[in-house]
Amino acid sequence: MPQATAGQISLQLAISRATAASLLAIAGGVTASYGADVELGRYLSSECMTCHGTAKSDSTIPNIFGLGEAHFAEVLRAYRAKALPNPIMQTIAGRLNDEDIAALALYFETAKKPN
Amino acid sequence: MTEMTRRNFSLLAGASLATLSTPLFAPAVLGQAKPRLVVVGGGPGGATVARYVAKDSTGAVDVTLIEPLKNFTTCFFSNLYVGGFRDRKSLTHNYDKVRKSGVNVVQVMAGAVDRDKKQITVAGGARVPYDRLVIAPGIDLKWDSVPGYSEAAAQIMPHAWKPGAQTELLVKKLNALKDGALIVMVAPPNPYRCPPGPYERASMFAHVLKKKGHKKSKIIIVDPKPTFSKQAVFLEGWEKHYPGMIEWQDPKIHGGIKGVDPKTGEVKTDFATYKAALANVIPAQMAGKIARDAGLADQSGYCPIDPESMKSKIDANIFVVGDAAIPGDMPKSAFSANSQAKVAAMIIRAELTKSRAFPARYSNTCWSLIAPDDDIKVGASYAPGDGKIKETGGSGFVSQKNEAADIRKQNYKESVDWYNGIVADVFG
Q: More exposed terminus of chain A, fewer Cβ within 10 Å: N or C?
């Protein structure tokens, strides 16, 4: 099965987002800024920077800055559930709990891409 | 905290006038008492700590990085240079952006650490006080771990396990080989820098010679280890791309590595004596000298650390990150060094500026190129457990046999993107 590109992943999620959005609203979502810990997000983000800090639109490693908190959290949850390929991201997301994901989503919404 | 005394400052000033055109170290301004972090070693461990503490503390910590090289050529990806996939320039980085991050980068060799006085002496005699010290010197080679090998022998039988002149020597010797040449690699015993590295290098040897049209050249790896990292997929890849060219011998086959003779080019095992046109001897390793001289290493030659913080178990004011540390289940790799550095940076900031500390987390991925567009990977995440840095259960992954070619091609592109990312993270 061909490996999905970052672009394809975004597209697939965009299509499912309409459905997911209503579910998120019901669940209260883990993406609410209220209560999310931006300092925790900053610490956790240091792991992400190594690979994602220089990501360009044509990289295999996607740009994760300013994606929107809801979309960011969706993608991480999908990796955590192994619904998306790439074993590195499955491993990284696999140890993030909902609080961690919310913190990261908040941090990456406002942080500036360093490169 | 040690104040910069007038005597110390004049020592520093004397050293700087003698050796450099700019002051070595920023003197403490009267009345200002910034906590001081000194980092020894400007590689993926040390430079990462320095940059992260400087930028995340927004100037609240005085950060000095001591590194003897003006430009740093990464050991990681140097195998790709051996294989002709990268040039040396693309693997070489300066410290300009590290300075712009607010780090005082000093190009000098660090010397003795006085742990009681909390100061480090550098070449030229200047003494640098610290509140916290990070030691990240990388590895030194245990020359006598392979009988007949030595620092002098490395000029004939290169290890190229530290980048620079050794890598150039290896590349020169490799490219001078004629068809029918025998390359013998003596692989290192655990624990060593870059577990899959020797086998990626053997792959690069084979690639270079195959590309030149060699039909008869051979590579023999004599290994003190019974198994090696990503073994199944390396063996599969060698069979696919270089059939009959690379022979890996475990101890059951060779019966023990007896020694090498740089004068004759011979590599002796219990099984056979090989006359190698190129002998790549990678000896056993240990922490860099400054760490051992400071009393931070144990009998393994590496430095025990607290897995929650990367602090030395021997001195609570000193952190050891990267290849010099005992990393528990983590491999010695640039990825690991950079990961460990961030935990150390967080704890250092928490101790010096009362910023928040969080539970330590670590991760690693290692990519290895077997042949063009055939790249394999292995990795895991880690956290403190059982008194060490422990692999998180279920987090490990490794490339599988019979994988689709486009996955292996994607792995290679990913590794190149990772390289761009990590060098920006380390060097700015």
A: N
Per-residue pLDDT tens over the stretch B314-337: 999 999 999 999 999 999 999 999
Q: Residue A31 and residue B55: Cα distance in Å, rounded?
A: 27
- Whether B396 sits inside 8 A of A46 (CB atoms) is no
- ipTM for the predicted complex comes to 0.85
Question: CB pairs below 8 Å between A and B: how many?
Answer: 83
How far apart, in whole angstroms, are the C-alpha atoms of residue B381 and residue B365?
Answer: 9
Helix or strand run (H / E) with residue A109: helix A98-110
pLDDT mean over B405-419: 97
Contact with chain B for residue A49, Cβ under 8 A = yes
Dig out the tokens for B327 from the structure: 């990393």
Model's pTM, two decimal places? 0.89
* pLDDT tens-digit series, residues B148-186: 999 999 999 999 999 999 999 999 999 999 999 999 999
CA distances A115 to A112, B34, B45, B96, B170, Å, are: 9, 29, 20, 15, 34
- A5 Cα to chain B: minimum distance (Å): 10
pLDDT digits (tens, 9 = 90+) for B81-125: 999 999 999 999 999 999 999 999 999 999 999 999 999 999 999
Instruction: Flag if A92 and B363 touch (Cβ within 8 Å).
Output: yes
Q: CB distance B379–A91 less than 8 Å? A: yes
B229 touches chain A (CB under 8 A): no
Name chain B contacts of A81, Cβ cutoff 8 Å. Answer: none
DSSP conformation class of B77: T
Cβ separation B414–A60 shorter than 8 A? yes
Using CA atoms, how far apart are residues B311 and B305, in angstroms rounded to an integer?
A: 5
**How far is residue B93's CA from residue B332's CA, in Å, rounded to a whole number?**
21
Given CB atoms, is A38 within the 8 Å cutoff of chain B?
no
Cβ contact B407–A60 (<8 Å): no
The residues in B 340-359 lying below 8 A from A, measured between CB atoms, are: 342, 345-346, 356, 358
**Which residues on adjacent β-strands are paired with residue B37?**
B63, B132
Q: Are B240 and B232 in contact (CB under 8 A)?
A: no
Pick the CATH number of A36-110 from 1.10.760.10, 3.40.640.10, 3.40.50.720, 3.20.20.370: 1.10.760.10
User: B293: distance to nearest CA of chain A, Å?
Assistant: 32
Q: Which of B56, B342, B380 sits opposite A91 (nearest CB)?
A: B380
Quick one: pLDDT at residue B8? Answer: 43
Among A104, A115, A110, A102, residue whose Cα is nearest residue A32: A102
